Every structure is written in C-alpha cells, then in structure tokens.
Amino acid sequence: MSTARAHIEVLPRSVQLALALGLLALLLFPLVGSDFYLQMVTRMMIMAIFAMSLDLLQGVTGLVSLGHAAFFGVAGYALAWFTPSDMPVSLWWSLPLAIAAAGLLALLIGCFVVRTRGIYFIMVTMAFAQMLFYLFFDNRLLGGSDGLFIQFRPDASILGWLPFDLEVRTTFYYFTLTLQVAVYVLLRRLLWSPFGRALAGIRINGQRMRALGFGTHGYQLAAFTLAGALAGLAGYLLGAQTGHVTPEMMGFHMSAHALMMLILGGMGNFAGAMIGAFAFEYLLHLFQDLSNKHWQSLMGGFIVLVVLAAPRGLLGLLGLLGQRSAGPQQSQGPGHG
Question: InterPro entries annotated for this entry (predicted)?
Fold first, then answer.
C-alpha cells in the first residue's frame, strides 16, 4: 500500500463507524439541544467546511497556507454587500456569487503564489491575506474595524414559494449540515478522480510528476481556486449565521485556527479536518470558560500534547485504537471511505 493511499484514501472501519455515529448524532441533536448549543454546533459545522477546504490545499496538495482566511472573509463580506438594509437577499443567486467571488480572488492570488515553494509560499499567502485584512480594517467604506451587519438571513423563496426558512434556527442547522455532508462527499470523490490522484502525486514528488508531463502549476492553481471557493462557502454561512462580518474573519488568527484544526484532527484526510474542527471549537469554549485570559496557552499546550502523543491527530489515534481492538488479522483489511 502506497503512502498516499494509506494516508488519504483509506478509512479504517472504526473511523467509518465513528463518522456514521457522528452523522446520526448531528441529525438528532436539534431534538434535544437548546438554542445556545444549536448555534454552537452550527458554527462547528461551518468551521468543518472551512477546515476541509484548507485540507484540500494542505493535506492533499501539500501547499501550507497561512492566508486561507482571506477567501473565508471575502465571501462573508459579499453577503453583507448583497443584502439590502430593509429586506433579505435571495439565497439562490447570492450564495453562488459569494462563492464565485472567493474563488476568483483565490484564482488571482494563486497565479502569483503557486510558483513559490515552501516557506516562500507560506509567507506570500500570509502577506496577501494581511494586505486584505488592513484594506478592510482601515477603510470605512468597507466597514472599518467594526465590520458590517447583515440584517436578514438569505431568502430561499422561488417565485413566491418558500421551500424552507433560514431564519428558523433548526432549518439553518439542517441546511448547514446538508452542505457539510455535500462538501465532504465532493472532496472524497475528488480524491479518487484523476485530478485528485495528480494532486497526491504532486504532494509526494512534484519533480517526478513534471517529468511525467503533468503541468503541476496548473493543478496547484486549480486546487488553490477550489479550496478558496469552498472557504467562501463557509464564510457565507458564518456571515448568515452571526449577522455580522469583521476584518478578523480574514486575519492571520483565523487562518492559524484552521491550521490547528487540521493538526488536531489529522491532516490529509477530510474526516480528520471535520473532527479537528469540532474538537477545536469545543475546546475553545471549554478553555475560555476555565480562563478567559489564558485560554490560548491552554489550547497551545493541548495541541502540543496531541502532536507528541498522536502525530496523525485524533483521527489517526481513533484508527489505531480501532485496529488494536479488532486484533491483528482484522486490522490488515481496512475498508474504504
């Protein structure tokens, strides 16, 4: 079994079972959860989409970005600009346009950054994101440091018929869950496609891929653009949920949080990105309750412990425990996710 196949494409049965139970729990949660926790889990699902988009870039393609939040924030701002002050905007055109805006920005930035490597790629992506951050932070026409408010959630009406109302928290919850599952399925299918296999090959040995005739920069640019568009989907949803967008959505800290989600859950596997996002958001609330001033130190210490004890993240630890409980014979025949 190749390293790429073992690290990305194969999910042990224990992980598949955990994902199925997790999906079942998410489907049933609105029946028992209060409004506060419903909002909290909705945010977790949004951040899971954001983390998966970064995982496509970092875990699959091997491009470590510290500027991914720029696309996340731009889509949130796009929703704020599209929404009138006295009525909701249509979901059916505002969502695709916000995603397209984030994807177009990723395409423009990607044209410059995919020709760099290693530490230079990291620094250039962070530089672009910081430029956007200060552009929005210092410009009152763009909302300034206070950001912009979104008075209404998008309207899903079609010719006067309303199939679902996103102003209802439970409906917005299931809408977000549907998109999270759709993004996961899309990215898992992408891994098995020729495009996904080319990205994995570029991550493992880009020089060999170029020698085989693959245009690696084109593949990397396509992955960068797709990852930016999916980050835009998450930013749009967060803007719709909170009703407020600020420059912090596209700042360095937001990109760093997404990176920590991947480290926590396990890079190179979209299931790990989802687990990492849920774990990170839960720990964020837990540590803030324990110490409002020093929660970053607690979070940093926990991340260090996870890296030392489980280098492949919580997902790798879960898979290892499942293999040990299944015994040596069963652990040799994992299923496919």
Answer: ABC_transp_permease, LivM-like
Distance CA 289, CA 328 (A): 42
List pLDDT tens digits, range 128-181.
999 999 999 988 888 888 999 999 999 999 988 999 999 999 999 999 999 999
Asked whether the whole model's pTM tops 0.85, one would answer: yes
Residue with tokens 């991914």: 68
Which of 121, 5, 104 shows the shortest CA–CA distance to 58?
121
How far is 169 from 84, CA to CA, in rounded Å?
21
**Beta-carbon contacts of residue 285 (< 8 Å; ≥ 6 apart):** 40
Residue closest to 87 by CA, chosen among 132, 154, 168: 154
Residues whose CB is less than 8 angstroms from the CB of residue 317 and which lie 6 or more positions away in sequence, other chains included:
309, 310
> 158 φ, ψ to 5°?
-125, 105
One of 1.10.490, 1.10.3470, 1.20.58, 3.40.30 is the CATH number of 13-321, namely 1.10.3470
Three-state helix/strand/coil letters over 271-306: HHHHHHHHHHHHHHHHHHHHCCCCHHHHHHHHHHHH
Domain boundaries, the chain: 13-321
